Amino acid sequence: MKISLSYFAATEREKAGSAYRVLLDSARLADEAGLEAVWVPERHFSEFGSPYPNPSVVGAAVAAVTRRIGVRAGSVVLPLHHPARVAEEWAVVDQLSGGRVGVSFASGWHGTDFVLSRHDVDDRRRVMAEGIDVVRALWRGETRTFADVAGREFEVRTMPQPVQPELPTWVTAGGSPGTFELAGTLGAGVLTHLLGQRPEDLAQNVAAYRKAWEARGGGGRGHVTLMLHTHILDGLRASAERARVELARYLGVSMDLIQANAADANGSATLRSLSETDRDAVVRQGVTRFGQLGLVCTAAELPERLATVSSWDVDEVACLIDFGFDHESIMRSLDDLLTTLA
Questions:
Q1: What domains sit in the chain, N to C, each tagged with a CATH number?
Q2: C-alpha to C-alpha distance for 157 and 137, rounded to whole angstroms
Q3: pLDDT tens sequence across 151-203
Q4: Are 295 and 308 in contact (CB under 8 A)?
Q5: DSSP letter, residue 49
Q6: Less crowded by CB within 10 Å, the N or C end of the chain?
């Protein structure tokens, strides 16, 4: 099973530039250690993930300071962008990296983000699926016809041309079996997490993905990447308590975003109806769950945790390392992670 790093800068206490210092320092270390990739997200209009409004920009920075490791978007929210612009930007990063780019495409989930879009939020899944085909075609050097605001049509071939002849592609999925199946049908990988699914749900969704991939033909089994919160503990009670605090804050801010999400009226209303006591109970339950299922554990526990994840038929773990800890703690944990994996 391959190991990568992923990022979200999930802290409201960041000093200027510190999230990027974590990103670049850890990317260099992961590159030297031979890890698979670094995954950077796209987030808008919130402190939660705020250093990452455009993954191609920070991806270019990662490309410039590394030599071998994959530089991947996790994710590009495709309905917020013109497909030609996506092909252009990521071709630049592919050139800068010498052909190390990969992109996971997402349909988007937060209604406020769609102030950036030409499309209605309710149409986001169709727009994503159609847009993936367009980006892939442009990446291969094909032309596509687009219209300007006056309705005039132009045949477009994007520049620069990338290094890789085909764009390594993923689709970001929560817990929807349909999204897993779509990824298989498109011949794309899956980038997923455990926020909206239990391990048994994940295993079923992965099976559905493999089946859709096989039905498409062409051989292989596809590629499933699972994001997991990761922090190697030193075995002391204070370290474990710190991890619980950071996970609780992370989950609490996640709930705040869902509550403010106009694109998910049911989820938003459900969270607004919770009392503070109920909300705290949900967070505590989440902390316990991620403490048991994720990679927030001691170095001695890590091999068994990874073996369990492998049993879910996952090809790659993307270790989310910046969910609240300071730079020194993150780098110390990463060093322990790499030592254990060696």
A1: 2-236+296-341 (3.20.20.30)
A2: 10
A3: 999 999 999 999 999 999 999 998 899 999 999 999 999 999 998 789 999 99
A4: no
A5: T
A6: C
